[in-house]
Design a protein that fits this description.
Blueprint (H helix, E strand, L loop, with lengths): L33 H22 L10 H13 L10 H32 L10 H14 L2 H12 L3 H25 L3 H9 L4 H35 L7 H10 L3 H33 L1
């Protein structure tokens, strides 16, 4: 027929491509020596647990009846909670003080942790010889001491009140958020940073325009999570004399008012759950707005 070109009989006809195999992957066991190492590690872990139980003199036979004894004690001494004790104006004022203390500590701690995280990140620190070890030492020092220990020390130095509690939570926030901030900086992609450096940007410009845009979402989530953790700690630092809800808890414990203690613990649980829900909602909204 006209318009058709003859096919070369000697030419090789290309074979149609076969679809990729969709057969499921077969499972196989680890073979020697991987299996040997795995079982040695498992046996070593079990032996270490057994040694720890024996060395610490932990009597496992007391565990089965623990829940029953605990339920009996709660029903006899702590039930029903004295809800009227936590509905007065003084206690509600301590709840507001706890919120203010946690908010202030988070703001001050995060503000101090931002430059420390910059200096403590190995890939972006302006000076690996001086600033990097000093910033790392500050973050590790704040993080290694528990917030309750900070509270006891600061109360001994500054006296009772909200000031030692706010400072203790600020130090805890510096160590907690500073470590997470620096790890987020060390995980950035270097392309944007190298482009700004090649254009003649200084250290501060590189950090502001090359690092912050890559870590802002992660830092926002870390900040909200830090406030959540700081607020939980703020509910009990008052037990050591730093004001807030914990001060009421300490007073009730010293008076051996078990039903008042139960009401305060119940209120702390409710407030922490509300803060958890609020922080989760806030993280979702901010992540959508920034992304």
């Amino acid at each position: 027929m006209a318009g058709l070109t003859p096919v070369n009989a000697g030419a090789a006809v290309p074979k149609p491509r076969m679809p990729a195999s969709t057969a499921p992957l077969t499972w196989s066991r680890f073979r020697y020596p991987q299996s040997l190492y795995k079982y040695i590690a498992l046996l070593g872990s079990l032996a270490f647990i057994a040694f720890g139980l024996e060395y610490l003199n932990i009597e496992l036979d007391r565990l089965p009846g623990m829940l029953g004894r605990m339920g009996e004690m709660l029903a006899r001494r702590y039930f029903p909670p004295n809800v009227g004790h936590i509905m007065n104006a003084d206690y509600l004022h301590t709840v507001v003080e706890t919120l203010q203390m946690s908010y202030l500590a988070t703001v001050l701690g995060v503000a101090a942790a931002i430059p420390l995280a910059w200096f403590a990140s190995f890939n972006m620190t302006p000076s690996r010889r001086f600033l990097y070890p000093v910033a790392r030492l500050i973050i590790m020092g704040c993080r290694s001491v528990h917030e309750m220990i900070w509270t006891i020390l600061l109360v001994a130095l500054l006296g009772f009140g909200m000031l030692p509690g706010a400072l203790a939570l600020t130090l805890f926030c510096i160590g907690f958020s500073g470590k997470l901030f620096s790890e987020a900086v060390e995980a950035i992609k270097p392309g944007q940073v190298e482009a700004i450096r090649s254009a003649g940007g200084n250290q501060l410009q590189v950090f502001v325009f090359g690092v912050l845009p890559q870590v802002r979402v992660a830092w926002t989530g870390i900040t909200i999570y830090t406030w959540d953790v700081v607020f939980r700690a703020a509910t009990v630092v008052g037990f050591f004399g730093a004001g807030g809800m914990g001060w009421y808890l300490r007073e009730s414990v010293q008076r051996v008012a078990s039903r008042d203690v139960a009401a305060i613990l119940l209120s702390i649980i409710v407030v922490v759950v509300i803060s958890e829900l609020f922080s989760a909602w806030l993280r979702t909204r901010i992540a959508k707005a920034i992304a």
